[in-house]
Amino acid sequence: MAELDKGRREQYRRKVGEDFPDSLTLGPFSKRLSLRYGHNPGDPAAFLVSDSVEGPTIVSSEILQEGRGLGFINLGDMDLGLELVRELASQSGQFESVYVIVKHEIPSGVGRGASIKQAFQRAWSSDPLCSFGGVHVTSGTIDDAIAGELVMPEKNVEVIFAPEYTPESLEILKGRKDLRVVKLTADIRSEVVDDGNNYKSVRGGFLVEQRHIIRTRTADDFEVVSARQPTHEEIKAALFLWPIAYWTRSNVIVIGTENQTHGIGAGQQSRIDAADMAIRKANGANGRKQFLRSKGTFMVSDAYMPEPDVVELAATNGVTGIMYPLGSLKDSLVIDAANSHNMTMLATRRPGTTDCERVFLHR
User: Fold this and answer.
1) Residue 60: per-residue pLDDT
2) Global pTM value
3) β 180-184/61-65 pair status
4) Any idea which fold 29-184 has?
5) How far apart are CA 233 and CA 212, in angstroms?
């Protein structure tokens, strides 16, 4: 055990070799669209696209209803939403109905269901307050029933991005003149073909990294480190919530069930603050309606927990288990705390290995 403890901490200290070229030219890029503005009014902005990327990305899109015009932030939300929708919809091997609402490049609510309407209802009810003014992305067809809900004033939808729309839905959506309606023109089930890298612009240059591919996808990809084994429902919840944690700004804690988020605590400098935010969102701190939804949920954490405080908070609020990467000096105390509350703890480490999967995201 001591050797494993040392090994899993070592992964955060190792320098990873890279073979990026000494000189790199990106492009060519061509201007696709002049945007309403950048991050803020008065900032000129445009959407430039690469000719070498193929598959379902925001490049493969058609504006069906322009509304007040797409902005810089809208496109970032659409991009993140599409990535998350594709990840979750293909999770079981059979393409499923998934609905994601994004705001400020952070998921507000995520739902999966037997139909797009059910997935939408689960996504919206996850966090109505933070979903207000959001970008909606889905894996299937927007019909008249969903469109009727989307044009309600209390929803205040900014953009809808979907593979298909029924003629009836498009007529209904015309009732909201500011609404932007965008269609994905590539097959959402196909693979994206690009160079496999992420780029981040900084003053004077850019950062490049190999894109992370989520590896914790099945029950064979994690290890139970608690005394109690997970239930089938807990495993399904963990695997559903894990990609959501990856596509959410760190530090992040996500709580929910196998088909719905109940609370997302994103972009916090401390893990306990992220956990507190997720719990508060689930339990009615949204100014709209009081409800207690953390009881019986599962939690995922994008990185290790330096203290047992997150476990104690989760247990107090009825969370039954946690998936997370090991690597803290106090891993044993964290696991002991979980055992004292009969919680199940799943480490994102394949049995017999030392490295865990961490899913930080900063964009």
Assistant:
1) 98
2) 0.95
3) antiparallel
4) Cytidine Deaminase; domain 2 (3.40.140)
5) 27
